[in-house]
Structure formats: C-alpha cells, structure tokens
Amino acid sequence: MTTSRQPVALEPYAATPGASRGRCYPESEHPYRSAFQRDRDRIIHSTAFRRLVYKTQVFVNHEGDHYRTRLTHSLEVAQIGRTVAAELGLNELLVEAICLAHDLGHTPFGHAGQDTLNQCMEKYGGFEHNLQSLRVVDELEERYIDFPGLNLTFESREGILKHCSRRNARELGELGERFLHRHQPGLEAQLANIADEIAYNNHDVDDGLRAGLLTEDELIATDLFSDHYAHSREQGDKMDRRALIHATVRAMINEIVTDLIDHSRATLTRQAPADIEAVRGQAAAMIGLSPDAEARHRSLKHFLHGSLYQHERVLAMTERAHVIVRGLFECYMNDMHAMPKDYVRRAEIWVEQSGEAGRARAVADYVAGMTDRYAYSAYGRLVNSGINEPLMG
Ligand code: MG
User: What is residue 65's predicted lDDT score, i.e. its pLDDT?
Assistant: First the structure.
C-alpha cells in the first residue's frame, strides 16, 4: 500500500542538476531557478507549446470544446508524472519538463498526419514525430541569439526522445547511444513515457464515450473499465451518466497510477541503483506496472485500437487528414516560396547542403508545425478551396 503523504526527498537514483550531463551550449546557472526548472519554463514559453492547443489528440480540434487537445493531454501527462515522481523521490521538475515537451513534434491531425508525413518523407529519411519533438527543442525554436533551439539539458532531451530508429540514433551522438546499446534512460524519462500511456488510454475512454464512438456496453468487455464501472454504479443510484463515467475513469486512473507507484517502488528497493548512471546501464525499465495491472491496461489499449481508433468516423478523419497533409507537402515541395520567409531561408541553406532532401526536411518541419486549423486554411487557400470544412461530421 502507498502510505506516504509528505513530499519525499530525492532518492539517490533521481536526476539532479548537479549530476546532469549538461547542455549542448554551456550557460551560467540562474540565481534561483534550477536547470530542470529552466527547461520546463523554456518549454512553456515556446511557440510549439502554444500551438498544441490547436492540435488533435484523437478528435479534431473543432469537433467540440470538451475533447482533449495535445495541450490538455500534455498537462494531464505532466500531472500524472509529477504525482508519481513525488511519491518515488524522483525529480518532479524534470518529469514535468519531459511530459510537457513530449508531443511538441506532433503534426496536425494526430497520428494520421504523422503517418502521411512519414510516407511523404520516405525518400528523404522519413519522419518520426518523437524525433521531431527533439528537433523542435534542439533546432526549430528560435528564441536565443547564442544558440538554436532551447538548449535543454541532456536529461530533458533524453526523456523527450522516447523512441528512435537505429539509423537516426547513429546520428545523435551521446543521446542516441542508448538506442544502439538497448539501454534505459533515467527514471524520470521512464516515468514520463508510461504517464503518457496512462493519460491517453484513460482519457480516450472519456472522449470516446462523450463523442458517442464508444458505449459503456462495449467497454464492459475490458476488466479495467468493467470493474470500476460496476463499483461506481453501486456507489449511487442517482448518479447521472456523465458523473458515472467520471467516477469510473477517475477510479481507473487511480488504480493504474497506484499500481505504478507500488510496483516501481518495490523494484527500486530490490535493485537499489546507486545513481542515475546505474539506472542508465540497465536493459530493463525499473518504472512500470505489475504484471496484473499491465495486462488490464494493455487489454484496454487493445480495445481502443480495435474500436475507437478504427471507428468509421475516425477513419474518415484519417482519410481527409491524409489528403490535406500530402497536398500541403507536395505544394511546398513544388514551390518552397509559398512558405513563410524564415522557412524559405532555412530551406535555401539546407538545399545547398543536401539538395532535395534538405528542401524536403524544411517542408516537413513547416507542415509538422501547423495546427489543425492552420493546415485546413492553408490547404483551402493553396490546393483546394472547397475543403475548408470540418473533418468529422
Ligand atoms: Mg502523448
């Protein structure tokens, strides 16, 4: 059982600014903000972070005002991450920074946009949304005179880069090494990764029910929903449907988060890594769910893959997103001067360095940075004036 109520001091295996592998461009310390606090603040003040409010999670932004967007999703991930970090004695500020930044590289229209952009970039090295999040903080944000990007600490960048192909890992130096050796990142990065999954699995249930794409009768097929739904119903006959759903989703998150804390704490106590470097030498994650909770959570994920993400209305959105993203990519490849001046300038430099692939990368960066609504209007203006209408009806 989890019993601690007071903030726990940092454990020896937590990330600390003192043991940080540092920033790419050395900077002096701030008088009162720690290195990870500065990372978090830089992320919140970035342009890419503000754009998350108009980017799709599963539902297109203008479908309704109550669905999650990438921004509210990122805040929920950070909230879960910080709760667990505080209980385990990990660095809350670092976890928060990673969670807030983890989706900065997402394209408009969620996974549909990303898959399309990856196809468009097939000849030019592909497009990985996770690697794009790193590109945003390392290169694309322009906020400092002395360096490109946000110059975040190694630990924040390590957490942002959750996955990476071996080909791309080879080009990332120290940051890519763990993918080549199949080693784990620090515990804060492990935690942010699983907080992301917990957040989206559970809030997609809520959004899916709200949108009428899922029903309670279908969800009862999963034990995690069914157990808490039955229990919540017993709590009050007078609860209306929305309140019952909220009570159920709340209990689902609580069960999984509590298990994550308890199971991870047991693992850390057993393995007792001396410091963050000892964590990084491991092949297996130390932050994780017990096998039972893992199975319950995984079965919910499979259910959502089969039902929500394959729902005909979501697939219709996927199809339209495919058309818009491909249309925009081809349009800017044919005429890169249709992009804003900053992107044209960048594209010209990269074309000189690496020809067509350089141009394609500049176009992919531009299209990936678009919000849903910006992509609509750009497509309507440049490619097809008839498409400027909601994707899901
Ligand atoms: Mg996410």
Answer: 67
